[in-house]
Amino acid sequence: VSTLSHALRFATPGPPSKVVQYLPVQGSPPLGPGEVRLRMLAAPVNPADLNFIQGAYGRAPTFAADVTDTPTSPTGIEGCGRVEESRDPRFAEGQHVIVLRALGTWSEFLVARGDDLFDLHSDMPVQQAAMLKINPMTAWRMLRDFVALESGSWIALNAANSGVGRCVIQIARLMGWRTVCFVRNQSERVVELQSLGADLVFEDAGSEAYRAALGQLEGKRPVLALNAVGGLSAGNLLQILDVGGCMVTYGGMSLRNVQISTSQLIFRNLQARGFWLSHWLSNASSLQVAGEYARLSDWVASGKLVQAIDQAYPLADFQFAFARAQEPYRTGRVLFDMESSVVRP
Ligand SMILES: NC(=O)c1ccc[n+]([C@@H]2O[C@H](COP(=O)([O-])OP(=O)(O)OC[C@H]3O[C@@H](n4cnc5c(N)ncnc54)[C@H](OP(=O)(O)O)[C@@H]3O)[C@@H](O)[C@H]2O)c1
Q1: For the whole model, what pTM was predicted?
Q2: pLDDT recorded at residue 1
Q3: Where are any strands of DSSP class E within the chain?
């Protein structure tokens, strides 16, 4: 028996607040072999979600008809759900899982292949679980996959108060690495980021700020830089890297292309690389993916890795959620809390 439920979907790419609709969708289509039906519990609003809806992401939407005549695309790249029904022997009713590869977490119910889910094992708050897929793993991969860091190695990062930046800071502390952090409004962030484990926090205010930061690294230089801003900020990060160091670009919040100096690249033998979690998720073996998420979930479950939450909204209040998610200088993630929006028969 198919019942109706609701999901956030869009029929054409554009500004999220204009194109996204709260629509009726098939609530319980019959499951195929290996499929699992989830009752979604929570899902965050990430920059990537908004870029995807705008048509400015590495993955294009596919539009298909559901109960409405107009073909629409699902939304929501990550989230946590509870298994309602399973045709995959690895998942049983009542288990909490996160969605690793399927799209459409901004919905009350989601059907996904068991292969695209991760069983949380560990007991953790649903809202923290909903944010486990993207930011913690992005931080962890960038710290593991580019440079062999040693105890006490320095890592430089801009947008250090972003969700990813805060994960980088906390994981670096757990691993014995040190962070020199650059943020847009330093005065408000120092205490907060230091409490997460940041060693040094500076205003991202031009090359002089970066040179001043360098003066406080006890004669050392960062061997790894993580760039989520682009433009001049990226060039400044590169300027303070050690010879042979690597800058990994994973975001472009300033909407300006990375500006880097040719001579710095050549004479200091620097590397400028890119990272996209989707590539890693597509290419890593399922054993590695499961092992690495198990490590991160242990940190989250034990409270060693915590993501700040700004506010949670019912799905139907998506306009408020989008507006809040796009306000600058927030200190945490905006989420959808589906428990408060389910349409009960
Ligand atoms: N490549 C990947 O696999 C991957 C994975 C996760 C995230 N990302 C990307 O990483 C970036 C950060 O994501 P997030 O979820 O961590 O972000 P977030 O928590 O939403 O925070 C956004 C950050 O960007 C800063 N910011 C906003 N506008 C800016 C501007 N014009 N100039 C400089 N800084 C600006 C904000 O600073 P204020 O606090 O001062 O406003 C804040 O630090 C995004 O571009 C996202 O798409 C990429």
Answers
A1: 0.95
A2: 46
A3: 4-10, 20-26, 35-44, 73-74, 80-86, 96-99, 109-113, 117-119, 154-157, 178-183, 200-203, 224-227, 246-249, 271-274, 309-313, 333-337
Query: Residue 343: its pLDDT value, please?
Result: 43
Ligand 1 atom nearest 46 alpha carbon: 15
Residue 260 CB partners (closer than 8 Å, separation 6+): 234, 235, 238, 247, 272
Question: In the prediction, which pLDDT does 342 show?
Answer: 45
* 3-class secondary-structure state, position 337: strand
Q: Whose CA is nearest to atom 22 of ligand 1?
A: 162
Residues with CB under 6 A from ligand 1: 46-48, 134-135, 138, 159, 161-164, 184-185, 228-229, 250-254, 275-277, 328-329
Residue 117 β-bridge partners: 99
Quickly count: other Cβ atoms within 10 Å of residue 281's Cβ. Answer: 16
CA of 253 to the centre of ligand 1 (A): 5
The pLDDT value recorded for residue 341 is 52
Q: Which atom of ligand 1 is nearest to the CA of 325?
A: 20
* CA distance readout (Å), 191 to 2, 178, 201, 205: 52, 16, 9, 19
* Exposed e or buried b per residue across 100-118, where buried means at least 16 C-beta atoms within 10 angstroms of its C-beta: bbbbbbbbbbbbbebebbb
Count CA atoms closer than 13 A to 255's CA, side-chain side: 4
> Which pLDDT value is given to residue 68?
80
Q: Which of 200, 164, 162, 204 is nearest to 182 (CA)?
A: 204
Residue type, 188: E
Helix (H, G, I), strand (E, B), or coil: what is residue 203?
strand
Spell out, as residue ranges, where the chain has pLDDT lower than 70: 1-2, 341-345
- Of all atoms in ligand 1, which is nearest to the CA of residue 275? 1
